[in-house]
Amino acid sequence: MSGFFGVMSKMDCVNDVFYGTDYHSHLGTKRAGMVFIVPGKGFRRSIHNLENSYFRNKFEDELPSFQGTSGLGVISDTDPQPILFNSHLGHFAIVTVSRLVNLPEIVERFLEARKHFTENFEGNINPTEVISNLICEKESFETGIEHVFDTIKGSCSMLILTDNGIIAARDRLGRTPVVIGKKDGAYAVASESCSFPNTGFELEYFLGPGEIVHITADGYKQLKAPGEKMQICSFLWVYYGYPPSYYEGINVDQCRYRCGATLARRDNVEADFVCGIPDSGVGHAVGYGNEKRIPYHRAYSKYTPTWPRSFMPQNQGQRDLVAKMKLIPNKAVIKDKKMVFLDDSIVRGTQLKDNTQDLRASGAAEVHMRIACPPLLFACNFLNFSESRSIMELAGRKAIKQLGGDESELAEYSDPDSPKYAAMVKQVAKNLDLDSLVYQRLDDLVVAIGLPKEKLCTHCWDGTSYY
């Protein structure tokens, strides 16, 4: 995942862009960048690697060198951004939140036409540069963005900084969010609405799927109306989103509370307390505990001063180690207790198995796991969730293989009322040494989010999707 933040203001906007972008740090851990149109000097940008530090630490010393009333910032989990372009459309800077499944095919077409790419990184062609080239194949930003939507498979939302304002476009099917905020003399556009309150902006407008708008310091106007079809990523509410954020007017933390409460209503396990795996499991656990009327205790405390990120190192073994080191079990809370743990999801299950071993070593009487979403059985083609992992490493897929199942039976394994589903969940619980395991039903998750099923992307759970 990635996130962006842009500002058009009647006053200097450097601090707004800096702090607003920082509020997207939970969405990416690899690279970040900012760009401003500096009066008399044109576009000025800076890009840093975040793999060993925070956005704030990397950019804070550079703030005095920036100035301007318009700018963009981005936290990227993939390519270095922003990209600067000079074309028949004029000078512009662009940031994207995207995943291009058919990137190789698009690149091959450009190369066969004797075009070239300069923004390469780690031996890869930068997908944001590819998007920029697609835009420049048309006669306007509006038609160029529509060309992107028609060409790519995957997803793409973007901000384009021009001399005349910011052009914001949300993915054709709205898989990632774009929201506008307002304060006196300025407008902001962002991926996360949680970036608005402390920067002084009031939430103003949610862009619809495929919608394109032009933003200035005086307001915004629609260049292209939103489409009727939407498939926003459900994982935004379950995991990606920060608790105070809203998508489609629906608050993340309130949704997680409903997810936990729904799990509790279907559960008959007896437990002494409930606990959430920090951080994203906490909201789910509070909803569960309140519904079941059992206390919430912190069996785990998250140690962040020297272990800030569980997925920062490039090596998977190191990531697993960091994930283990930052969660400290509290034996005083755990010993001789029956507990229910809530978490957002199980991907491979490596960290959860380590958690279970810690709890057993601390004297836990029983460990019951409740997961806020259904089993992950399909690879994500639209965001970067689990992108680097083999599909067969998913805990659910591993269990299916152990049971002798195959691809042709995935529909049955994703049906919560089928015997194959029950056998799969039981096998996952066995693999992770859990006394019991319950996943959220997809129909219950849809109700907890509050949007119709057809407006949600649920591909990673049931395999349904369209481009």
Note down, in words, how this protein is organized.
It is globular, with a radius of gyration of 23 Å. The mean pLDDT is 93. The chain has a seven-stranded antiparallel β-sheet with strand order 3-2-4-1-10-9-11. It has a six-stranded antiparallel β-sheet with strand order 5-6-7-8-12-13, covered by helices on one side. Helix 7 (252-265) packs across helix 8 (281-292). It is an alpha+beta fold and 467 residues long. Helix content is 30%, strand content 26%. Strand 7 (154-162) and strand 8 (165-169) form a beta hairpin. The protein has helices at 14-22, 55-59, 103-112, 127-135, 141-151, 235-240, 252-265, 281-292, 316-326, 331-334, 350-361, 395-402, 410-413, 419-431, 442-449, 459-462, and strands spanning 3-9, 31-38, 42-49, 70-76, 83-87, 90-100, 154-162, 165-169, 179-183, 186-190, 202-206, 212-216, 219-224, 232-233, 246-247, 250-251, 273-276, 300-302, 327-329, 338-343, 366-371, 436-439, 456-457.
